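This part of the workshop introduces the protein records we will be handling. To make this concrete, we reproduce a full record directly below.
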Amino acid sequence: MKIFKKIAGLGMICGAIFISSCDKDGVVDRGQPATGARVVFVHASPDAPHFNFFVNNTKITGGSPTAAGVEQGMAYSITGLPITFGYAVVDPGTLAVKAVVAPSSTTAAPGSELFNTSLSTEDNKYYSVFALDQLANISPLVLTDNLIAEPGKAGIRFVNAISGSAPVNVTATFTEVGATTSSTATIASNVAFKSATEFISSAPGRYVFQMKDAATGANVGAALTVTFLRATENYTVYGRGITAGVPGPAIAGFYNR
């Protein structure tokens, strides 16, 4: 079950990367290898145009073309979840990862490189690459995804991708499956911009996440409600937007696996 699809309409473009082909936008179909490093990509730059991620000069993300047949890329979504792509399976080792503006862009030069970074990967390990901050300062945040695989438990982590953000805390009001009472706890404390927590082991149930200014305790953005009905699923909850601008701070999330 893709719970974030059910709640907020998460779009998964072209299905699983390297499993189904996206020939119209040039994504290479390499099949699904039995082993390899797994990498997921997230567009979290609020004013950046559509762009695509490349690994070792091979494009591995891509959006559906426009009606005129012009290639689009990943987009930052203001009203829903940002477009993310399922874990791409790549050869382990040191990877050159870059973000390149898609041909459909009218706000930045198509083909221009937004950033280039190096990612060291190992076989059968999981990683996330977030593109964050405003376009003028866009940069990657590379995370190792230590997913929870504990029987009877789900995994939850928080990433602060709010441009210009002060450190935030995150509370979660939890209702166990079948229960009528709830409890509230702080699940992330003093998380600075461009940083993240590890995945924490959590019971399945209904969660209401709320970001708060770590210094004042004031709410940052609206709450996000998510129900995890199965254990051994992992989710990333993250803050996005601009502290003093449009779009303002908001909390969102996506299913890792």
The chain is about 0% helix and 45% strand.
